[in-house]
Amino acid sequence: MTVLTAYERKTNQVLNTVVCRGRITKNAIETGLGKWLDKQQCTLCTDSHKSFEGFAMDNGIEIKRIFVRRKEYVINKIYHTQHVNNIHGNLKRWMFRFNGVATKYLQKYMNYFNFIRGMGEGIHLVDKAIQEVLRKENVYMQRNQINHQKCIT
């Protein structure tokens, strides 16, 4: 499965979402970033994969491509992918503790990781935690599912 990770500098928001199987396509990028990205006011900084260039061209987005094979890591002393690479590393280390995750549950684990990362050191702030969970579009449980949940006390 391909997980798309996006980082927004101004708000420190992270998006980790499962977009497709195999190599990423521009349609998968549109599915993953479409609603989340402000296409008029952003600069997309990516690796050298061609799908990102196609996505940017289709949506009129300024793009800065980093070519690591050419030993190019930073453009204009501001554009780089180190934040996303750091998030990938943290995500891999965090996922390792689960000893493998079923594909159908992978997005739920991404949501869990994003939630914990977003809370940071202030996880004891219950109000903030509840507001964050309620704000998420894809984090919900239908009433009939709640009745069938097993609980060990």
Structural write-up:
With about 150 residues, the chain is of the alpha+beta class. It has a single domain (about 1-120), classed as Nucleotidyltransferase, domain 5 (2-Layer Sandwich). It has helices at about 25-35, 50-60, 80-95, 105-120, 125-135, 145, and strands at about 1-10, 15-20, 45, 60-65, 75, 80. The strands form three sheets. It has a two-stranded antiparallel sheet with strand order 1-2. The protein is globular, with a radius of gyration of 17 Å. The termini are far apart. The model is unreliable at about 140-153 (pLDDT under 50).
Architecture blueprint of SSEs:
Elements (H helix, E strand, L loop, with lengths): L1 E7 L4 E8 L5 H8 L9 E4 L3 H10 L2 E4 L8 E2 L3 E2 L1 H15 L9 H14 L6 H10 L7 H5 L6
Parallel strand pairs: 3-4
Antiparallel strand pairs: 1-2, 5-6
Summary?
With 153 residues, the chain is of the alpha+beta class. It has helices spanning 26-33, 50-59, 82-96, 106-119, 126-135, 143-147, and strands at 2-8, 13-20, 43-46, 62-65, 74-75, 79-80. The termini are far apart.
What features would you highlight for this structure?
18% strand; two-stranded parallel ribbon; single chain; two-stranded antiparallel sheet; 153 residues; alpha+beta; Nucleotidyltransferase, domain 5
Order of H and E elements = EEHEHEEEHHHH
First-to-last CA distance: 35 Å
The CATH topology is given as Nucleotidyltransferase, domain 5
Helix content: 40-55%
Count of the domains? 1
The level-1 CATH class: Alpha Beta
Supply the number of helical segments. 6
Task: Give the strand order, joined by hyphens, for the main sheet.
Answer: 1-2
Q: What is the C-alpha radius of gyration, as a whole number of Å?
A: 17 Å
What CATH architecture label applies?
A: 2-Layer Sandwich
- List unreliable stretches of 5+ residues: 138-153
The 3D shape can be described as globular
Mean pLDDT: 77
Structural class: alpha+beta
What does the largest sheet look like? 2 strands, antiparallel
Beta strand count: 6
Proportion of beta-strand residues: 15-25%
